[in-house]
Design goal:
The protein has three domains: about 375 residues, Alpha-Beta Barrel (TIM Barrel), CATH 3.20.20; about 170 residues, no CATH class; about 120 residues, Jelly Rolls (Sandwich), CATH 2.60.120.260. The protein has about 725 residues and is of the alpha+beta class. A hairpin with a 4-residue loop joins β1 and β2. The longest helix is centred in the middle third of the chain and has 20 residues. Strands 4-5-6-7-8-9-10-12 form an eight-stranded parallel β-barrel. The protein has a five-stranded antiparallel sheet with strand order 29-30-34-37-35. It has a five-stranded antiparallel sheet with strand order 31-32-49-41-44. The protein is built from ten helices and 49 strands.
């Protein structure tokens, strides 16, 4: 969807509307003040390549006015510079201006001086108390100075503003008093100059919204839950009209229902967990499938905006007076790492593109090409679909469809059947030889039937019925849509790309004439590694073990990785349609078969880099004491784009230091700890030799009150060891 400064953006109970056309955007959260500004452009390019349309972000008050009256919008805190980067990227933006943000920040983002001032003068924050509102006004005004000129009306990227966060749920007032405070903040923001087409407020757990568009959330687990045991199955894997996630913010008190009329607002999300930020007492690991299955379930439940918190992890900035993370010491329920805000997000603390990135990108690819059309397909409950997540035996299904009139005047129903047999941390029943059917609203009329298949534990997918292929054909197929390559052959024909998660051939029912358009079916793994991009003014699909990203200059780069176990690597990618010539430094190894009406991945041309990528790095590990190690790393990237230090440790937590200064930290989860070194080379300077880091561990005891999915082996009732370290080099190779 192309949006200009003259575009009219509105909404109705169904969706966001741009210039009278429905829009299904993808949104991802990135906190500029938690990531080095030098790399903002390349990280935003990764987000866009991952299918994100809107970058959302908190302006965290304590990051900018830790000392009263001393505002800091410099360096990594430079909001105006970030707005410039967002504009360059071609993404849109939703600003979450608080004043309370949460975001696992100290005091929910409130500066200490504000709380001390409220205590001294006897007023309550997050109310209409005049003294509080005066402080908020100054913060809003300083924030506005940073974003002035970047609103949509100015030709800028900012299309929306979120006021407050979880207000009336995690603190604040309820009822009429709460609604009035939200309206007071909105009026203040507008008067200062925050004029956008869209104003939102988080709407879960009894939060009040002041009449703004409520945005919802859902996380695969709850690391803020005060229990240290396995928790009950998450309701976010059930197809339901219910928009509320009762687990969000449950550390601040159990959430209640929603306060707004769902029939008056579209189903938009702002906080689908792109991962989870672990706490000291609870450390669940969010996997790619956890996020992928939950996202598809929300789509199947009628959501018309998928927004991820976080989409990009980061690192807390250093405070001038205190550390800036949430802690129990400040009266909050949880202890968080002092620096790491990794979140196991699709893009992690050091910009790593994880499997979750590929899962979200796969769904986003469908949304980008088909999402606008699905917006006015309502959620239709299906017979037998369970409404409780502890039902692990019943098959979970939903449908979204609508009635349309064909060119011949004939009415038909087109849409999608969604199936989810995934429940995080619980085993779902096997459904053998199941014939899937999509039912009409009456629960009896069959709209579409699909070939029989086994549906195993962890399977999740959706199938289209009566999907329009070109102008004259309708397709019902037991494969999941990925994208459309328009004019793939230069003769006006399109290639419709699908994937299948089974080994059997697809069963397709085509009504009408394909008229030269083609159907291409990939495996699910191929689809996960597929990126649609434009090369030589032609839409193409790139498949590679690496990840293709288009930068702000329009150049396409392939990110690839070499580890110490590989020594050298051949970089390659497949492309459809084939390129007119191989990229510089590459050779065409296979042209690929010519596409016909129904094709597979063998239509892709194969390109290999002429020179292998060699591994040329060494790292050293030396035990200094029972809880400290010396790690030696190369003093230079040696031509790589990034160098990741991988630390396999077992302990309660760990810190990396250089010359006594903490660089980053980690709460142990059982995952390998990944540390990007590039930012530290920029800080310390590169050299031909090496430099030493200290790694200090805190022992983990077998009786610790901590939830871990898997506990390490204990020696004498404790774990405090680095088992191994190694390096992974990341390269960025231009292919267009």
């Amino acid at each position: 969807m192309k949006i200009t400064k003259d575009s009219q953006i509105t909404f109705d109970p169904t969706s966001i509307i741009v210039d009278k056309k429905r829009w299904f955007p993808m949104m991802g959260e990135m906190h500029f003040s938690r990531y080095p500004h030098k790399y903002w452009d390349e990280e935003l390019a990764k987000m866009k390549a991952g299918g994100i349309d809107i970058v959302s972000l908190y302006v965290i008050w304590i990051h900018h006015e830790e000392i009263q009256g001393e505002f800091d919008f410099t360096g990594d805190r430079n909001l105006r510079q970030f707005m410039e980067a967002v504009k360059r990227s071609g993404l849109y933006c939703v600003l979450r201006i608080g004043p309370w943000a949460h975001g696992e920040a100290r005091n929910g983002g409130f500066p200490d001086w504000l709380l001390e001032d409220a205590k001294s003068w006897g007023y309550e924050t997050r109310t209409d108390a005049p003294a509080y509102l005066e402080h908020v006004r100054k913060f809003y005004e300083k924030t506005y100075e940073q974003v002035k000129g970047f609103f949509l009306k100015d030709g800028g990227p900012v299309i929306g503003i979120q006021i407050e966060n979880e207000y009336g749920h995690c603190g604040g007032k309820n009822g009429e008093e709460g609604e009035q405070h939200m309206k007071t903040l909105l009026a203040m923001a507008k008067k200062i100059g925050f004029v956008t087409p869209i104003y939102t407020a988080t709407g879960w757990g009894g939060a009040v919204t002041g009449g703004m568009i409520p945005v919802m959330g859902g996380y695969c687990e709850a690391p803020w839950d005060q229990r240290t045991t396995e928790i009950e199955p998450s309701g976010n894997y059930i197809f339901t009209k219910e928009r509320n996630d009762h687990n969000i913010g449950s550390d601040h008190g159990l959430g209640v229902g929603i306060t707004f009329d769902m029939d008056k607002f579209p189903y938009l999300t702002a906080e689908l967990g792109g991962g989870l930020q672990v706490t000291r007492h609870r450390r669940p690991i969010a996997t790619a499938s956890d996020t992928g299955a939950m996202s598809m379930t929300k789509l199947g439940s009628g959501a018309n905006l998928l927004g991820y918190y976080m989409y990009h992890g980061g690192t807390n900035p250093r405070g001038k007076l205190t550390t800036l993370q949430e802690t129990k010491e400040t009266g909050y329920p949880n202890d968080l790492p002092e620096y790491s805000y990794d979140f196991n997000a699709p893009l992690r603390e050091f910009g790593q593109m994880e499997d979750t990135y590929r899962e979200v990108r796969l769904l986003a690819s469908f949304i980008r090409d088909f999402g606008d059309d699905i917006t006015d397909m309502p959620y239709i409950p299906q017979p037998g679909n369970p409404l409780k997540p502890d039902d692990l035996k019943s098959l979970r299904t939903s449908a979204r469809f609508k009635t349309v009139t064909g060119r011949d005047g004939h009415e038909y129903k087109k849409g999608y059947l969604f199936v989810n047999n995934y429940q995080r941390r619980y085993e779902m029943a096997l459904h053998k030889d199941t014939e899937l059917k999509a039912f009409d609203q009456d629960g009896n009329t069959v709209l579409a039937s699909f070939a029989k298949r086994d549906i195993a534990d962890t399977d999740y997918f959706f199938y289209p019925f009566n999907m329009e292929i070109g102008q004259s054909a309708l397709l019902t197929v037991d494969a999941t849509p990925v994208c459309v390559l328009n004019d793939y052959d230069g003769q006006g024909h399109n290639a419709y790309v699908f994937y299948t998660d089974t080994d059997r051939e697809i069963t397709a029912d085509v009504t009408g004439d394909l008229e030269g358009n083609v159907i291409i079916t990939l495996t699910r793994n191929e689809a996960l590694h597929a990126v649609k991009t434009t090369i030589d003014q032609r839409e193409r699909l790139i498949i590679s073990e690496g990840d293709a990203v288009t930068d702000i200059n329009g150049e396409v780069h392939l990110y690839t990785w070499v580890s110490d176990s590989e020594k050298e690597k051949v970089s390659s990618f497949r492309c459809f349609p084939a390129l007119s010539k191989a990229p510089e430094g590459f050779s065409e190894k296979s042209k690929g078969k010519e596409a016909d009406s129904f094709s597979t991945g063998d239509v892709f041309a194969l390109y290999e880099k002429d020179e292998k990528i060699g591994y040329k790095y060494k790292a050293g590990l030396e035990k200094v004491s029972e809880d400290e190690y010396r790690i030696s790393v190369p003093g230079s990237l040696k031509g790589a784009d990034e160098l990741f230090l991988m630390v396999d440790y077992e302990a309660e937590s760990a810190k990396i230091l250089k010359d006594g200064e903490v660089l980053t930290d980690s709460f142990y989860t059982g995952q390998e700890w990944e540390i990007g070194l590039k930012r530290y080379y920029d800080s310390f300077g590169e050299s031909d030799g090496s430099f030493d880091l200290a790694c200090k561990l805190e022992p983990l005891y077998e009786n610790a009150a901590i939830y871990l999915q898997e506990w390490p082996k204990m020696s004498d009732g404790r774990a405090c060891v680095i088992n191994n370290i190694h390096l992974v080099a990341q390269y960025r190779i231009k292919i267009s």
